[in-house]
Write a structure and sequence with these properties.
By secondary structure, this protein is α/β, with parallel strands linked by helices. The chain has helices spanning 6-14, 35-45, 47-52, 59-68, 75-81, 92-97, 103-106, 123-129, 143-150, 205-214, 220-228, 268-292, 310-320, 332-344, 351-358, 369-375; strands at residues 73-74, 111-112, 117-120, 136-138, 158-163, 167-173, 183-191, 194-201, 238-240, 258-260, 299-303, 324-327, 361-365. 40% of the residues lie in helices and 16% in strands.
Amino acid sequence: MDMRSAAQAARVAASGDSALIVNGGGKGPVSAEWMVPKALWLKEEEPEVYAAATYICEYQDFINFRLTGCMCASVNNVSARWHYDTQRGWPNTLLQHLGMPELLEKWPQDVLPLAEVVGGLTQEAAEHLGLAPGTPVAQGGVDAQIGMLGLGVIDPGSLALLMGSSHLHLGVTDQMLHGSGMFGTYRDGLCPGISVVEGGQTSTGSAVAWLHRLLGSPGYAELDKEAAGVPPGAEGLVCLDHFQGNRTPHTDAASRGAFVGLTLRHSRGHMHRALLESICFGTELVLETMRDNGFHPASITCAGGPTRSDLWLQLHADISNIPLRLTEVAEAPALGSAILAAVAAGWYPSIPDAVRGMVHIARTVQPNPAVHEAYR
């Protein structure tokens, strides 16, 4: 992750501009990975490059440009990372406050919805790819949010839990909700009327992999079996999952993880379970923060490597007391991309129609009420 623009991101957050409402209800922070601080860094640190640039855009925009000759932005990207709003438009006052109103002229002028045809493959691109000239290219977006489509998460109250080295929590709402401890609402981020709220955990799968290495790299299934034999609460061993800081709701990069309550009776199974419990309680804190801000997740659909662990999934269900759904196609962003292509090709009239035709639930993990009560 490129964090070179951290100082610029802090200045963006300090501007107090109304466009920052998607950053914790205006309280911040602003990620150094978002467009405006990156562009500000480029202007200040490499002014010649900034001045010479015709376009400042996402890599996806550049790829589409090379494929089709058309320069445009995705409503999904600009709503989630550029402080764009489908009703307000571009963040003009924010750019003026930062002394870079000219950035508007360097951004793509056309903003396309997901699944809109950007254009057809040029002769050069078609020859390079071995495809037919004129093959339509569909507009895409942020990988995780396209993964929401691949999980079938398009109805208000539904939430996608994307699990990997970190956790990402993406909820669908038909209301404009803002508040401390979460990002969004990204208006019309997926489709008109389908907006997104966001939370995240920094160290989840990465922390489990770290502990796995620390314990001599036993099989994950072996660790899960040992942890499953440990009662809820890991017999007093408590873990905090802030091994690389906290993304939401505290958004504290300096916070650090910990194991507390270790005794000589605790085993590696206790440590594994305590870490998994910590991650799951971190997810529940994200969901609790969303509830406090008006978003109440009614269903959770999961994807990612950790879904191969039945124990981990069951702990999430038990601690949050919400059923977890898993789809037949585990590669959610890939299926989401196929959904957009199918709509662009005319196979389905809309994204929701394509989602309902192409996404299928394989199984559901139900919470255990007794275990949930033990965790309360």
